[in-house]
Amino acid sequence: IISAVAFDILPLKLHPFSQSTPTGLDCVGWKQRTSSPVIADGALDKTALTDDVGSEEDLYEDFRSSNHRYGHPGGGGEQLAINELISDGSVVYAEALWDHVTMDDQELGFKAGDVIEVMDATNKEWWWGRILDSEGWFPASFVRLRVNQDEPMEDYPLKVEGDKEDDASSGTRRFGMGQTTKDQMRTNVINEIISTERDYIKHLKDICEGYIKQCRKRADMFTEEQLKTIFGNIEDIYRCQKKFVKALEKKFNKDHPHLSEVGSCFLEYQTEFQIYSEYCNNHPNACMELSRLTKVNKYVYFFEACRLLQKMIDISLDGFLLTPVQKICKYPLQLAELLKYTNPQHRDFKDVEAALNAMKNVARLINERKRRLENIDKIAQWQSSIEDWEGEDVLVRSSELIYSGELTKISHPQAKSQQRMFFLFDHQLVCCKKDLLRRDILYYKSRINMDEMEILEVEDGKDKDFNISVKNAFKLHCRESEEVHLFCAKKPEQKQRWLKAFENERRQVQLDQETGFSITEMQKKQAMLNASKQHHSGKPKAVTRPYYDFLMRQKHPTLPTTLPQQQVFMLAEPKRKPSNFWQNISRLTPFRK
């Protein structure tokens, strides 16, 4: 085990806006000040700050120099407790919340749901652990301590489906006052769910009262638009979670926690939890805005003063704002663990089973929306590569490339045929022409509004409307203007792919309407701005390698110098098939250098 001295020698180079934050946030050891510069409604009293403790900068330095310590998972009291257990010879297990993919042989890679034996937790950012025969460093923020440390290791990785055929002997073993071991395990999980919800409510309250209210009192520093960008809809989430935790507490059986029936609460609130999608989608914008503001010292001092006055732990604002993103992804993990220790005969079994599927669906919806938002940058880059672009940007109406390919377009009145490249997005079909010499260069020609079109399949033979013989053809018919567009594919299978793509486009539009998916004007403008900068630079942005700078040549295990970018949306389930956006674009229209 590496000594604590080794960690003091190696400074940590923190990666901004990627550090994970625990959901159970609280502060300990706070020494009360004789006077508090907070006015009744929670706003920051600038006069009080100036008179009592000087400027915001003075307040910041005052608390910094006083060496206050706070306890939180991965640091402080709990960290000491973990190391004491390890020193006493106890085996401490942690469960992976997200995938940790690494290129460094000194790091421990794992998938969400894996169980890791924690061997050293001396450093609060990076722990040393073991899975089977592999050992290495891993980010402490990627795991949570297992609720049931006494559970046999060989039983833990079993899937929920397999646990329905539970060991008969487990029902006969007793724990405490007449409880079976499985009942006690269920009690532990129920207690953890209730406890973490209460901690989470306090955390949201601290953000709303400690930061947002203070910021609103400083109109000279923040506009309402800035506050909306930084904090998103976290106040809506706070109101939702307060109702949710009250519903949980009503179902909580204090005398016999294992008899609690909490599954129905998750089912009742599954629709309301979709508000997390808006928050998760906005989170990258919040990080960008905070990064911009914190380059100015007065904002750094102000945010630090807000944290200290609210008596929050020593984590920056971007870390606090990451917690709701983590929370919504943690629910399926908690429910999977609860289902594992719920007997099929338990009155809560069916509700917990349904709640697990419901919360997985919520997480999938958030994942899908996140993927869509990531695609808008690629769409903006694609548009910037098209020559002679006319009209509104693609992102004004669209956010997904459904399909693309080459078709022959036949137009009235001379039934003139033209070879064109077509790109089907949600709501519109964009038509481009290849350069005669440079086939990798495309020129914009036109677009078709798909919201006004109906798809007509055309049989091989002579078409009456255009009075020509066609093969592998279909039509787009405008219901309002009666305008007709005739297209021919080279092969029958290509025609079928296009017909299927048109069905998918309508299905995607309908789903977006049902789920309320939309892209903000700020996100559209930022994507187009980034694409414009990249286009003028004459080359694509370099692909970053988060692990490239790790010290791989050290013989002695060395603490990594950076924190990897967290994959906050990964769950312990099969990975989604990668998007074929770039394959479609690069294969058909390589970007011009």
UniProtKB/TrEMBL annotation:
Task: Check the record and name the PROSITE patterns matching this protein.
Answer: DH_1 (PS00741), DH_2 (PS50010), PH_DOMAIN (PS50003), SH3 (PS50002)
State the source organism's domain of life: Eukaryota
Q: Any idea where the SH3 domain is?
A: 89-148
Domain PH as annotated: residue spans? 400-507
**An example Gene Ontology cellular component term from the record?**
cytoplasm
Where does it localize? Cytoplasm
Q: Name one GO molecular function term.
A: guanyl-nucleotide exchange factor activity
Q: Which InterPro entries match?
A: DBL_dom_sf (IPR035899), DH_dom (IPR000219), GDS_CDC24_CS (IPR001331), PH-like_dom_sf (IPR011993), PH_domain (IPR001849), SH3-like_dom_sf (IPR036028), SH3_domain (IPR001452), SOS1_NGEF_PH (IPR055251)
Task: Please list where the region (Disordered) is annotated.
Answer: 157-178
Sorted alphabetically, the Gene Ontology BP terms of this entry are: intracellular signal transduction
Question: Chief localization class?
Answer: cytoplasm
User: Which Pfam family is one of those matched by this entry?
Assistant: SOS1_NGEF_PH
Task: Write down what this protein is called.
Answer: ARHG4 factor
In which organism is this protein found?
Galbula dea
Name the gene that codes for it. Arhgef4
